[in-house]
Amino acid sequence: MKVVEVKHPLVRHKIGLMREADISTKRFRELAREVSALLTYEATANLEIEEVTIAGWNGPVKVEQIKGKKATVVPILRAGLGMMDGVLEHMPSAKTSVVGIYRDEETLEPVPYFHKLVSQIDERLALVVDPMLATGGSMIATIDLLKEQGCKDIVVLVLVAAPEGLKALEAAHPDLVLYTASIDEKLNEQGYILPGLGDAGDKIFGTK
Ligand SMILES: O=P(O)(O)OC[C@H]1O[C@H](OP(=O)(O)OP(=O)(O)O)[C@H](O)[C@@H]1O
Ligand SMILES: O=c1cc[nH]c(=O)[nH]1
Ligand SMILES: [Mg+2]
């Protein structure tokens, strides 16, 4: 699995701001969107381009276009919705495929409850977004689902990843590419990432 911890100063700065204990819902949402846009920019740096000729103001002109597959952004509900607009800022034509999974608070096992994927998803690049990769269970279940539907080209974007989750994801899906703003230290006994962001879903939705 290719893992990229993005070192861009804007990403380092903004993910640091997100760790503040008393951060407001508004600020957390804004930063989640901003960091997601920056991760998308980095993660798409190697998309293939091709030269085409179009009608320009002074006659035919050669321009470059992104070649090949169209994309679908795949937010894992709920918290992944907080990253979706950031991705769409740079990929405005991407279709959205939603996967609903929550983590059982006792067992930490992923519990799937909904999904609605775009048609012919197997022909698209899937950009899977979730702020937190903790044990990795929710992401593994999502990638399992996407692969069952024939997806071959999958890129994962997470704001914060725990080493435990990266290890589990690598073991289950070694072919993935993952971009993150931070690889943190570890999980605590409740499965929360340290230092982490706390409960990202609650912070994005203002619950609790
Ligand atoms: O790597 P894991 O151990 O599976 O944990 C990470 C998952 O937990 C959080 O979702 P949560 O279950 O809190 O759902 P929510 O987004 O609806 O709040 C988070 O957004 C991930 O989806
Ligand atoms: O640290 C964590 C772990 C799982 N889910 C979260 O929202 N935060
Ligand atoms: Mg949550």
UniProtKB/TrEMBL annotation:
Cofactor field: Mg(2+)
User: What does the record list as GO biological process?
Assistant: UMP salvage; uracil salvage
Q: Where is the signal peptide?
A: none
| GTP-binding recorded as keyword | yes
Q: How is the cofactor bound?
A: Binds 1 Mg(2+) ion per subunit. The magnesium is bound as Mg-PRPP.
Its catalytic activity?
UMP + diphosphate = 5-phospho-alpha-D-ribose 1-diphosphate + uracil
The molecule here is called Uracil phosphoribosyltransferase
Taxonomic source organism: Agarivorans albus MKT 106
